Amino acid sequence: MLAKLLTYSLFGIDARPVEAEVDISPAAMPKTILVGLAEAAVKESVHRIERALVNSGYTRPVDRIVINLSPADFPKEASSFDLPIALGILAASGQLISDAFSRYSAVGELALDGSVRPVKGTLSMALQARNDGRKGLIVPVENAREAAVVDGIDIIPVGSLAEAVGFFSGAIQIEPVPFSWEQAVQELGRYAVDYSDVKGQEMAKRAVTVAAAGRHHLLMIGSPGTGKTLLAQRLGTILPELSADESVETTRIYSAVGRLPEGQSLMLTRPFRSPHHTISEAGLVGGGTTPTPGEISLAHNGILFLDELPEFNRRTLEVLRQPLEENRVTISRAIGSMTFPASLMLVAAMNPCPCGFRGDPKRNCNCSPLHIERYLGKISGPLLDRIDIHIEVPPVPFRELSNEKTGTDSRTIREQVVQTREVQRERFRDQPCGLNGTMNPRQIRKYCKLAKDAESLLKSAMEEMGLSARAHDKILRVSRTIADLDHAEDIDVPHLTEAINYRALDRSYWSM
Hints:
The chain is an alpha/beta fold and 512 residues long. The chain is built from 22 helices and 18 strands. Strands 11-14-17-10-18 form a five-stranded parallel β-sheet. The radius of gyration is 28 Å and the shape is elongated. The relative contact order is 0.10.
């Protein structure tokens, strides 16, 4: 007999439909043949499935079993085919009679005792199942809350092969897993940190506010212990809440790589990724034989924080240049090309010199000019040019540290950021660009109108500081955000002056 059941396989972060076909025919010797470009992990599943069938109380057919995973030209390498193959074997051998195979799909890995283990990418699979017109998707219990985020499809949780057989045969009824967006936001949408924890650094908080309001990239330079990491870690608390689409898109990435926290159905706070400076190029942008997302995609819709920026390998940093411009990363392999989203805020931090105390009023710097030049030279000009705002984070005086009065809190800053983003959303309502930080040259000419005095100021700054055309556009984008924060229609001298100051610091450090 022949049995067919639809299942899914991940390709990057997207799910592709795969039809599991099982044919059983008489043969002199029992034999199981698996075809359809199955990788090693899938081929090994044959032995796992056979023992799961027997240990669940079913009979392993003593005939020839041919299992085909279609389409045959698409590589399959996940363990999520175990459950649909086992169900197909039972149906083809007459141990399971069901008319539900045409309405439901199934994914899941089997243990030797017949229990169903969780798999990666269930959210993407549920989205694809809905697009395929399926009534429901059978998933492991541990993945049920994640998949239930998708509306318009029933998510049926099963803990064992016997449960799945019972559902398909109609012997047992399993209720679909419900999902409440409001409850999820209440449970998972809170931050444990706040900018009120950061004493002093009000100037730095102002720069962070501008960066968050227009989604501008930020570089902080300062001695060790001045609060650069604290400022970066709290950036998510002042950004607008993730929209439903942003939340699902971010969750898909974490689900595909198995990084979704246990028991969590959605990513409802902005991702904050802080990779170590020893990270490889593939770890940062993604890679592998079958490409998987890297840190820049894990930071999608959130913050990528690179602490001790000059300690990163220079080649590793250079691969950031394209994603920062295009908000996506494309990886090409023999099996095909995959594009991962990478719409993020880059926040970098570094010391002013190898010892960290150059310019510190209380401690002496022991670094020679040559050592400082080599240290700063690890960051290329093109990468530095792509960072909109450069600020210095000075040491905090004792009187501010000991002051019981808290500084500006996240709620106050967030209100400004949200109001400014609403202005931008209205401005770019019918355009693909949604924020000042991503304006293209044509939009810059249209929306960044300068007063006459401001235009003269920008010309002088360009000539004196030797700024590039890209830096010129960055200044205009940042000044547009500052004007929006000030509720101003046009960019005036104070707005432009502040934006130029955010670009002046790198000239004092990198012009040695």
